[in-house]
Every structure is written in structure tokens, then in C-alpha cells.
Amino acid sequence: MTTTKRRTEPEASQEPTSLALPARNDGIPLDLDWVRQVRVNRSAVERRAATLPTRRTVKKEWQAAWLLRAITCIDLTTLAGDDTPGNVLRLCMKARQPVRSDILTALGADELQVGAVCVYHNLVSVAVEALQGTTIPVAAVSTGFPAGQNPFAQKLQEIEASVQAGAREIDIVISRAHVLTGNWQALYDEVRAFRAACGDAHMKTILATHELATLRHVGMASLVCMMAGADFIKTSTGKEAVNATLPVGLVMTRAIRDYYELTGYKVGFKPAGGIRTAKSALDWLILMKEELGNAWLNNTLFRIGASGLLSDIERQLAYFVNGRYAAAHHNPMV
Ligand SMILES: O=C[C@H](O)COP(=O)(O)O
Known about the structure:
Structural class: alpha/beta
Strand order of the largest sheet: 7-6-5-4-3-2-1-8
Bound molecules: glyceraldehyde-3-phosphate
CATH superfamily: Aldolase class I
Number of domains: 1
Radius of gyration: 19 Å
Order of helices and strands: HHHEHHEHEHEHHEHEHEHEH
Low-confidence stretches: 6-18
CATH class: Alpha Beta
Strand content: 5-15%
Number of helices: 13
Helix content: 40-55%
Number of strands: 8
Distance between the termini: 40 Å
Mean pLDDT: 92
Largest sheet: 8 strands, parallel
């Protein structure tokens, strides 16, 4: 993505030395000139995305270390019609101890936990209770997830109810119609209102990129959502026909870079949907390192939304430790 804007004074410290939370993105007034300047060269983006997985070879103990890092960035998710308090409880147990202790010990790793547990609103209180005594936040999908076709007032109430129930992170969906009709002011106002309703809860803004028609729209919507105060921008609900892809990730991370260079705010990135293999988790980590640098390689600025990824990562770690794959029942998901 190319834009011509640049921040005039670079921030003094570019790389964090600890995992202290970055300053929250307060947003800025809607800058329509900047939004309209966005251009995306689709074939260049696709070429670059295709080379990303080949740019770094991460093997052996380095691969194990990267996979452990990936686990700490997972928003461990269940968003199914047949979710019950029981399977959310089991998911929370997994979130507390995502990898078998014998494998962790063999890797010389400390205790490990995932980035968050992500559920539908009605199961927030179950997850909050199950995670008591940990620092793992509960994230709630909201605003008429996944289609976002509920009345606006109802969307605000849903956010407020999830925050009230203890969700510390809210994954909202945008109205795709605002993007498809070029109504950037409406998108800005909507996301700004969602951010106000979130209060202290961090807001991840789901673009549902596959439904935005073009990569340019993805870049424009990313910018508008950040201007409106998104703490994270997120690719997909996991329910679109195509979910997180590297070309979309490239456009969104470059929008994050442009926004940071102009405003000084670090906005996080969350690819979600269809990410199921350890190999793909490595690809996403490589994208983050290449496009945004080490500052974005931790769970304050990077999450992977996934329901099935952890099983494969645990399987690969077991292989690294034991030299053979464990049977599926040795690493149950829930
Ligand atoms: O936000 C997370 C996604 O809904 C998870 O999608 P997934 O089930 O394809 O991993």
C-alpha cells in the first residue's frame, strides 16, 4: 500500500524493551484525503506475499522457540452454534496450560499461556470465572458477529453487556456496506461509537476482508478504523468464504506501519480464520517481523485468532522433543 503522508518527528524509542502495553490508540480525526490516497498494487502485493514464507528458514530449536511465541499470541477461540459452558470450560483449561508440562519441561520453557480466550457474548461469564487467578483476558465477539447486520443501538448494548460481564477485549465487526458504498464518514462514526462503548476494554476491529471486494478497500478501511481508535485491526470472522490470507495481511500491516509513522500510535494486528497449522503460524510471524519489526512480535500487538491451531503446534513441539508425532488423544483441544 502506498500513501504519501509521513509523521514529521520520529518517536524517540522505536523498539520496546519489555512487554509493557503500548499507549492505546486514541484515534485521530477522519482524514479523508489520506484515505483516498491509498493505492494497492495487487500483483506486487501477491508476489511479495508469495515470497514471505520463503524469506526465513526457522528450524530446530529456533522453530520451537517461534512456536512457543506463537502460542502466547493465540486468541484461543470457540465460536460455534453448539458451544456449551462445558466446552468453554475445557477451552479455558487449555488456555491456562496450552502445552503438556512434560513437553514444556523438555524444552526448558517456563509456564506458558495463550493471548486470550475468545467466545460469544453469552459465554463470557463462564470464561471469566474459569480464568480467574490468571492474567488471560476474555475476548467477546460483538456487534452482531459475524454479519454485523443488527440495529446500531443493539450493537452498542451488546458491547456494553460483554464489558459488564467481564470481557476485557471486544472483537467488533464493521458494517461492510459502509466500505462498499464508500461512506467512510459512516464507518468512522460507527467504529468511534464502538470504541466509546468499549471503555477500557481493548477493541479489535474485524474488517471481514473477503467481503470488501478489493485490496484497496481493505487498505482504506484499515486506515479509517485506526483513525477511529481501533486497538487492533483483524482480518476476518472465520465465517467468510475466504478468511486470513497473506496478501490481505500485507496490506493491513502496511496500513498499520503508515499509521504509526504518521501518528506514533502502534496498532495491533490479528489474522483470524482458517489458520490451523504450525507452518502457517510461522508464516504470519515472519510477515510481522518483516513488515513491522520485533516491536510487533508479542501479544500486546499481535494475535492469531484460531480454534484449531494450538493442536498442531503442540503436535510439532512433541515431535521436536520426542522425535515422533503423538497420537491425537495426547494433545486434546477441548
Ligand atoms: O476469530 C477467530 C476465528 O473465528 C477462528 O476461526 P477458525 O475457527 O477458522 O480458526
